[in-house]
Write a structure and sequence with these properties.
The complex is a heterodimer.
Chain A (H helix, E strand, L loop, with lengths): L16 H15 L3 E9 L6 E10 L5 E9 L10 H14 L7 E5 L9 E5 L7 H4 L7 H14 L19 H13 L7 H12 L8 E3 L8 E4 L2 E5 L6 E3 L1 H9 L18 H12 L5 H27 L6 H7 L2 H15 L32
Antiparallel strand pairs in A: 1-2, 2-3, 3-5, 4-5, 6-9, 7-8
Helix pairs in contact in A: 4-8, 5-6, 5-9, 6-9, 7-9, 9-10, 9-11
Chain B lengths: L6 H16 L5 H39 L9 H20 L8 H19 L5
Helix pairs in contact in B: 1-2, 2-3, 2-4
Classes of the chains: A alpha+beta, B mainly alpha.
Chain lengths: 379, 127
């Protein structure tokens, strides 16, 4: 696997007094302020983009006042699936306009003279992040699962043609075929050396559903990308993989065993039950959940996560971004493949009349993390 | 020539020291990185010790399909090359549709055994 475009590989930005000054000047122009004071509050999590907490003190102009923000910039080794900051800004705008709890995007900059790489600045949402925080309650959280479903349903009301989304790739005529082509591209030669990946890709081809609705998908919707405050969802983050696709794809990604954060027995992202997620989704989306189609996209989810893990490992191995976290992510491939096989075993093969339900997992299921280390999900 | 301890023993004592003496005292902001270091040392140790055993387990996994080529006397590079060749052959057959209608149960058993053999190194708890 490879970095999306090595020519785009940029060093991670570091805010020096000089670059902070350039950023302040640029922001003053953008806001019509007499002065903007930027305070660096430190780097935030996120293994794909570079995220920095900032406080902006704006003197004068329509945005006068203090603003808690996040600056998101391209990192050194951009993943193939990343849409970049300009498109992410547009997606955030469309999501917020649709009533989704996404951080409000404020500014986008593609002037390399300011910080170097493209970046966007958005409002900083309050709440605790990280998948283990989202699923930490001992009891299932049906209302949180419903709210996550409702949010996804709102997002999936955004259709191709929505204002501002012209720069996104064209909506696919057949999302399944497009996903297979993309996975083949990302997995590359490994599909001729790793029979698990070869079988997963073959399964996707044989079982590909015909096209149905095409909507704006988040494509990395899981507990690790949600903020929760006082038990309630406060924001959905990390929109850089968004694009048009089959709405069941997002539900499948959320429910995949890889994103249950050691709560394998709760099949709605580790925090609740699928029924609650689906009920919330149907409340706001205006469409019914198709479990069989979700099961198809769950197969695609494991292959996509496998491809991302390979790319993360390659970001380290290529020297673009030496990182132990990325290196360890690259070593998680067999773990992801085992999840894929468990899922396929539960689904049966193409000629079986109906998919069988996934065997009920128990809390005694093997932990999904590579070790006791809290290796955070990084896709 | 070096004196003892050898590389395996160095890894073992480094990991034991990290777990026993460093991790309990590391500041919260450094704990995640320290745990990742322990994880990496663990994987490296299992790979150094178990790469051939993993290769033999993979050959055994492939034996129901390609028994005649699953020679368990191989070691080192020869073993790796044989495993890679058989996996490549299986990939080609899968892509050609050879398992679309028949043999899926055998294939699934083989694939699960292959992955388990790799998890012995990468993450035994997930095997």
């Amino acid at each position: 696997m490879h970095v999306a475009n090595p020519s785009l590989a940029l060093p991670n930005i570091v805010l020096t007094d000089e670059s902070l000054g350039r950023l302040s000047d640029w922001l003053a122009v953008q806001t019509g302020a007499s002065r903007v004071t930027v305070t660096d509050e430190g780097r935030l999590g996120g293994a794909v983009a570079f995220n920095l907490a900032l406080t902006l003190d704006v003197d004068g102009g329509p945005r006068a006042g203090r603003h808690a923000c996040v600056l998101r910039a391209e990192s050194a080794g951009r993943l193939a699936a990343s849409i970049g900051r300009r498109r992410e800004f547009a997606v955030l705008s469309a999501a917020v306009a649709g009533g989704v709890l996404a951080p409000e995007p404020l500014f986008f900059c593609d002037d390399p003279g300011v910080l170097g790489p493209d970046f966007l600045i958005m409002r900083r949402a309050e709440g605790a992040g990280g998948g283990f925080n989202v699923v930490k309650a001992d009891a299932p959280e049906p209302e949180l699962a419903r709210e996550l479903g409702r949010q996804l349903g709102l997002l999936h009301r955004v259709m191709p043609g929505a204002p501002g989304l012209e720069r996104l790739p064209e909506p696919p005529a057949c999302p399944a075929q497009e996903a297979i082509a993309q996975l083949r591209d990302w997995i590359g030669d490994l599909a001729r050396r790793d029979p698990v990946l070869a079988w997963g890709l073959r399964w996707l081809e044989v079982n590909a559903p015909p096209p149905d609705a095409v909507v704006l998908c988040h494509r990395d919707f899981h507990g690790g990308n949600c903020l929760v405050k006082d038990g309630r969802l406060s924001a959905i983050l990390d929109w850089e993989f968004a694009g048009f696709g089959d709405p069941m794809e997002d539900l499948a990604w959320f429910c995949a065993r890889s994103w249950r954060f050691r709560r394998l027995h709760r099949d709605s992202g580790g925090g609740g039950d699928r029924d609650d997620l689906y009920a919330g989704y149907e409340e706001t989306s205006g469409r019914r959940v198709d479990p069989r189609r979700v099961a198809y996209w769950e197969t695609a989810a494991y292959l996509r996560w496998a491809a991302v893990a390979l790319q993360q490992g390659e970001r380290h191995c290529s020297g673009a971004e030496p990182s132990l976290e990325l290196a360890l992510t690259g070593r998680r491939l067999p773990e992801i493949e085992m999840e894929l096989l468990r899922h396929l075993r539960a689904q049966g093969w193409a000629d079986k009349a109906a998919a069988t339900p996934e065997p009920a997992a128990t809390p005694a299921d093997p932990p999904e993390a590579a070790s006791d280390a809290p290796v955070e999900r990084v896709a | 020539m070096r004196t003892g301890p050898d590389a395996f023993a160095l890894l073992d004592i480094a990991l034991a020291t990290l777990r026993g003496e460093v991790l309990p005292n590391v500041a919260p902001e450094g704990r995640y990185a320290a745990l990742m270091v322990a994880d990496a040392l663990d994987i490296a140790g299992r790979e150094l010790r178990g790469i051939d055993a993993s290769g033999h387990a993979m050959l055994a996994a492939l034996a129901p399909l390609y028994g005649e080529d699953a020679d368990d006397t191989l070691a080192g590079d020869e073993l790796r090359t044989r495993v890679e060749a058989l996996q490549h052959r299986l990939c080609i057959e899968i892509a050609a549709g050879d398992f679309d209608h028949d043999g899926q149960d055998t294939l699934m058993d083989t694939l699960e055994a292959l992955v388990r053999a790799r998890l012995v190194i990468a993450n035994p708890k997930a095997a």
